[in-house]
Amino acid sequence: MEDKILSELLNEYDRKISESLPVNTQLLSELKTKKSYSQLKKLRRNRLIELAISSVLSLFLFGYTYYSWNLHAIGWVISCVIILSFSLFAVSSCIRQLILISKFSLNQPVIENQKILSRLQIYNIMHLRMAILQIPFYVNYITIFSRMFFAYDFWVHTGPIFALANVIFGFLLFPFIWWVFKKISYKNMNIPWVKYLIEHAGGKTIVRAMEFLNEIDVYENESDVPESQSDKKNS
User: Fold this and answer.
1) Nearest CA among 59, 48, 33 for reference residue 97
2) How many independent structural domains does the chain possess?
3) pTM
4) Domain assignment of residue 227, yes or no
């Protein structure tokens, strides 16, 4: 008789646990999703700042390219176009990432938010790679900005030898930068300097947001175990 009562109590206990698990899972999912979203807010803030700076810079460069074209200064036009290309890419990259972040919702399935974060990782890597790829063209930035903002002609005041040395150094630097460009990937996060660059380019916030969502999957998979055990007991 006591065994029967104990068995009924255990079954009732299992039933209550099974009923409470969906509620607990939902609450945990909402909490983890909110934590993921709070991480993305940091990235959104940084990208908004970068978008504003890149947009203003692109306008200045476009105007100066047009000004140089009217002066038939082909060398200045080429330098402006190179920098403008990188600047416009930064603008488009920021916009794409901001659109993805805006699609992240607390009310949609976890799998949809995971897809958004995966695409955000890809765009973030592209963003970082293009930033690295600009380094060999540093002399273009020096010449254009010094002339555009300070009316200082880098080529005239430094002399042809110093100017040519900077151009040659930029070309010699390109193979190394291309190697770095190819190395930057989430699969190479085990390399300390790659991990450092990705994390400081916004990758750390994306990884943390992804980890919070992955914890939801782990909890939901574990929460299925008591239900299956309860079914066996009841059978």
Assistant:
1) 48
2) 1
3) 0.70
4) no
